[in-house]
Each structure stands twice: as C-alpha cells, then as structure tokens.
C-alpha cells in the first residue's frame, strides 16, 4: 500500500476527469490534496465530494496559463500547509483540426494550456520542493505526443514538448531529490473524449489491441506509483497507459 501521509499534492485541472481521479487516489493514500481548476463550478463540487470522503482537501481556482494565478496558488498552499511534495501537471485542452485548417489561435491555446503551463508550474513549485529536498513531479502527456495523430498537430506538439520538459526537469532537479516522470494516456473515458463523434470513437477503438477505452483510474494508478516512495529511483521516464495502442 502506497503511503503518502503528510505529503501535499497539487493537481492542476482537477475539477473533473483524470485530474479528479488522481486527487482521490492520492488522497486515499493519505496525501493532503489541492484541487485546482479554471472552472470554479466543477472545482467547488469536487472539493465538496472529496471533503465528504473525509480527506484533507483544499480548492484553489487557477488558470494555469496565468502566471499570477500560479503565484497565488503557491502562496495559498504554502500558507496553509507549508510545503508541496507532489505536483501533477494535468490541465489540458484540445482544439482539433487538420493542420491545413488549423488557425494560430487553436495552435497557441493548446501550447499555452498544455505545455507552457507545465513549465511555469514546475518552475514555481520546484522552488518550494527544493527547500525540502524532496519532490515528485508527474506530467500528464499523451500517446499522441509520442506517436502523433491526425487533426492534432497542436496537441501532439504540446504533449511531445511536455515529454522533453519532463526529461530536462528530471536532469536539472535530480540532485535535489526531485523526480519528474510522465504518464502518457491513450484513449480514456472522460468528458474530453465524450466530445468526439461516435464514428471517431469507433475507429479508435478498432485500433486499440485491448478493444476498450481506459478509465481515469487507470491513469491515476500510474500517477500514484510515480508519486510513491517505491519510485524514488525512477526519473525522466514516460509510461504509456493505453491498452497497447500503437505500441
Ligand atoms: N481523455 C483522454 O483520452 C486523454 C488522453 C491523453 C491525455 N489526456 C490528458 O489528460 C489530462 C486530463 O484530461 P481529461 O480527459 O480529464 O480532460 P477533461 O477535459 O475532462 O479535464 C480537463 C480539466 O482541465 C481543466 N482546464 C482546462 N484548461 C485549464 C486551464 N487553463 N487552467 C486550469 N485548468 C484547466 C478543465 O476545466 C477540466 O477540468 C489532459 O492533460 C489531457 O490532455 C487525456
């Protein structure tokens, strides 16, 4: 059983979906969890849900593309709990289009939300972790960032960038006992994929050797491993959790 007693975990984009599952999973291992999201409604609802499970939880509204929001989050969390041990860069969006039709706004929104945000969060929170000579940073990438995907040039570039960021963070912070790894989900059943047409879902399912979508818990379980003491000598790696898709 993974023991995260007294560890403080910040999870971005955790008002719903994979981020929320990660928060519940880490909380069930004893961590104090910080839910954060741009969407205040889902954030507040999820905070209430986790409080009802008797966990130690706080909610902080944070748009990860806004530097002032990140600074505010770090201050609020350290004022309350003094430290941050685990950071999960999970917030992400899609703006799919074939490259020939993709406009610069679609490109930039995805790069800002899925990649630049992780650079900013990591920079701000690794500073706190460095003081305690302990940290676990886990970036939620994507199978698309490893293999590419039709209609997702922006998303593939952002997630591939996130993998490069993961490996460099691992190198630069290893001497401070801070690890950084990425989990690359395949096709997971959340609101993000529910937005796809039935036709596209059927086509993707055909390509998955296990012939089913993953669940948010499948991703949360991988994150829990990287967050654990047991993973203390693993850094700079990418774990694909995708039912065999493209592998
Ligand atoms: N669902 C999948 O199949 C899948 C596959 C591969 C990777 N991923 C990645 O997993 C992560 C979570 O995805 P999900 O499926 O749970 O999606 P989701 O859309 O259900 O949840 C994403 C959350 O991020 C929040 N968010 C969006 N922009 C934000 C911002 N600027 N600041 C703060 N929060 C913001 C949203 O409000 C939402 O709560 C994303 O990074 C996504 O790219 C998902």
Task: Outline the structure in words.
It is built from nine helices and seven strands. It has a single domain, classed as NAD(P)-binding Rossmann-like Domain (Rossmann fold, 3-Layer(aba) Sandwich), CATH 3.40.50.720. Strand 4, helix 4 and strand 5 (135-140) form a beta-alpha-beta unit. The protein is globular and about 45 Å long. The chain has a seven-stranded parallel β-sheet, sandwiched between helices. By secondary structure, the chain is α/β, with parallel strands linked by helices. Helix 1 crosses helix 9 (216-227). Nicotinamide-adenine-dinucleotide (NAD) binds next to helix 1 and helix 7.
Labels describing this entry:
247 residues; 7-stranded parallel β-sheet; alpha/beta; Rossmann fold; 49% helix; binds nicotinamide-adenine-dinucleotide
